[in-house]
């Protein structure tokens, strides 16, 4: 990611923000999501979060977000809905509110949000929380859209947080919009409540849009001293939201620490991220967002047991959260706790019957457990809920491969490739299906593409070697097996099959060495039958006097 100079304070005149009238007919959730996607942006830098494009003046766009998203001094940029990135400038903040306004410059035409009348929000009304969040298994934040209901309104809000609602929200969604059923922005999402003592319920908090509209004339530049990075470019460090301990030491907010921890995780500084989350947990030992984000960091470190333990805490604090159960199920899945994983996926689905990712994971696990029809049923549901779900088509293709229905498998893998044309795995799996249908030229083409996308893909080389042997290209197959061995030196099958080719080419010495290596690896891996096959090849060579004995071999474990 390219970073820019420190964010600068730039004052701008207050403009009139129009509050749109409420419509009489509610939009579908998909329609609301489509509207929100156009103006919801992602913020990256030394903190992470989301924001709302709400105004344009010439080529300057203005973005509303939470102050805690960008209160850590440093460099920031945004990613707009079309994927472009721009430096952003910390412009102004609203005293007493967890809100900030940023700006960026572009000649492109971006949609600006329309504000609704948040005063009309009452208990029981549907609202949608939107933003960009990091979740386990994805290497970058993804767009999130959740549905919930207004629970209450606070009469004495802290830092403007007056709206209480029960939407699922993940760290990274801070600063994103809260929308009504007409697609109008009625709030800014930003905090979580403490867990209720009796029900363990954690609710979400947002700042009403009318609070911003009514106080926008009070926008002020930060009051901290300016720092000069160049003679031409004055810069200003944002003033953090701080707390004072009994000892007089000042602390940043837990939300700010979670935001900066997320930024460290995006830069793969997972230990730094974990340290930030732990600091947040020392301030608030029951903060579900800090546990969740620490679980993501542990997941990225492949410490699945630690991730599982943190997600246990998230489940404890938010027992009605489908996201918590789904991700705990993922960690249990990776820890080979199959039945526990199935229970967690099923619980997530019972809490949210429209949770496509939970159906995907449960379907994939059913495939692993050889319940292919059950896998297909879940994957059908995932595709019905999310027709552009490339992974669902790929996994359903695997189901059909297992059932030897290769034509259906190819149809699904065609769709997976159309949706995700850079998926080496999808090409390799389709190559396997073509191979089973003995369409070797098509299989070879798919393996070639998979290897072109991912040059270190050992399984694709193995599949291509098989096809090349069927096409009587022993030299090509030999090169593929040698490449596999260079990538994965403990791949016993590659040694065994390369030995067969050497044998076919009359190179008995190299054949013997490969069979011996394969036998050693098979023995270490406990593959008795394969071990005996390799030993048989060695004995055949020795009995025919084609090679000298290398060393004594015993068929014993």
Describe this structure in words.
There is one protein chain. It contains 19 helices and 17 strands. The chain starts with 28 loop residues before the first helix and ends in a 14-residue tail after the last helix. Helix 3 runs parallel beside helix 5, helix 15 packs antiparallel against helix 16 and helix 18 runs antiparallel to helix 19 (528-543). The radius of gyration is 29 Å and the shape is elongated. Strand 14 (226-228) and strand 15 (234-236) form a beta hairpin. The longest helix is centred in the last third of the chain and has 18 residues, at 508-525. It is an alpha+beta fold. Mean pLDDT is 84; it is low at 1-18, 223-250 and 548-557. The strands form four sheets. The chain has a seven-stranded antiparallel sheet with strand order 5-4-1-2-3-7-6, with helices on one face. A six-stranded antiparallel β-barrel has the order 8-9-10-13-12-11. The chain has a two-stranded antiparallel ribbon with strand order 14-15.
List keywords for this structure.
single chain; 557 residues; alpha+beta; seven-stranded antiparallel β-sheet; six-stranded antiparallel beta barrel; 19 helices; 17 strands; 17% strand; disordered N terminus
């Amino acid at each position: 990611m390219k970073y820019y100079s420190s964010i600068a304070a730039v004052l701008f005149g207050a403009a009139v923000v129009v509050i749109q009238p409420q419509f009489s007919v509610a939009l579908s959730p998909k329609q609301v999501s489509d509207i929100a996607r156009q103006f919801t942006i992602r913020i990256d830098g030394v903190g992470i979060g989301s924001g709302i494009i709400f105004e344009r003046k010439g080529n300057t766009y203005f973005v509303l977000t939470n102050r805690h998203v960008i209160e850590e001094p440093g460099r920031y940029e945004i990613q707009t809905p079309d994927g472009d990135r721009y430096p952003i400038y910390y412009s102004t903040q609203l005293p007493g509110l967890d809100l900030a306004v940023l700006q960026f410059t572009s000649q492109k035409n971006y949609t600006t949000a329309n504000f609704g009348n948040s005063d009309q929000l009452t208990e029981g009304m549907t609202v949608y929380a939107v933003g960009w969040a990091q979740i386990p298994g994805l290497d970058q934040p993804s767009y999130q859209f959740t549905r919930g209901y207004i629970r209450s309104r606070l009469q004495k809000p802290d830092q403007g947080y007056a709206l209480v609602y029960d939407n699922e929200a993940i760290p990274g969604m801070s600063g994103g919009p809260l929308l009504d059923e007409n697609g109008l922005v009625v709030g800014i999402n930003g905090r979580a409540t403490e867990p209720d003592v009796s029900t363990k319920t954690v609710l979400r908090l947002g700042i009403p849009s009318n609070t911003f509209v009514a106080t926008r004339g009070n926008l002020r530049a930060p009051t901290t001293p300016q720092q000069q990075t160049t003679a031409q470019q004055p810069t200003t460090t944002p003033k953090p939201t701080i707390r004072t301990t009994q000892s007089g030491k000042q602390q940043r907010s837990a939300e700010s620490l979670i935001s900066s921890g997320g930024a460290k995780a995006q830069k793969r500084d997972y230990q730094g991220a974990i340290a930030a989350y732990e600091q947040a947990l020392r301030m608030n030992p029951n903060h579900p967002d800090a546990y969740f984000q620490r679980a993501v960091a542990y997941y990225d470190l492949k410490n699945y047991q630690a991730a599982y333990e943190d997600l246990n805490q998230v489940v404890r604090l938010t027992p009605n959260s489908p996201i918590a159960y789904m991700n705990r199920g993922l960690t249990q899945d990776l820890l080979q706790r199959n039945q526990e994983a199935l229970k967690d996926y099923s619980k997530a689905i019972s809490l949210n019957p429209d949770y496509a990712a939970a159906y995907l994971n449960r379907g994939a696990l059913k495939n692993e457990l050889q319940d292919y029809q059950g896998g297909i049923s879940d994957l059908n549901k995932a595709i019905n809920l999310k027709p552009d779900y490339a992974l669902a088509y790929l996994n359903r293709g695997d189901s059909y491969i297992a059932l030897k229905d290769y034509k259906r498998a190819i149809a699904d893998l065609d769709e997976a490739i159309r949706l995700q044309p850079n998926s080496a795995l999808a090409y390799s799996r389709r190559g396997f299906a073509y191979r089973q249908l003995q369409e070797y030229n098509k299989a070879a083409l798919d393996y070639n593409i998979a290897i072109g996308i991912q040059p270190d893909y050992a399984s694709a080389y193995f599949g291509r070697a098989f096809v090349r042997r069927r096409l009587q290209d022993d030299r090509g197959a030999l090169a593929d097996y040698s490449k596999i061995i260079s990538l994965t030196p403990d791949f016993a099958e590659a040694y065994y099959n390369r030995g067969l080719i050497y044998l076919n080419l009359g190179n008995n010495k190299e054949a013997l060495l490969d069979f011996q290596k394969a036998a050693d690896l098979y023995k270490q891996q406990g593959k008795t039958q394969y071990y005996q096959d390799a030993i048989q090849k060695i004995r055949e060579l020795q009995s025919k006097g084609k090679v000298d004995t290398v060393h004594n071999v015993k068929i014993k474990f």
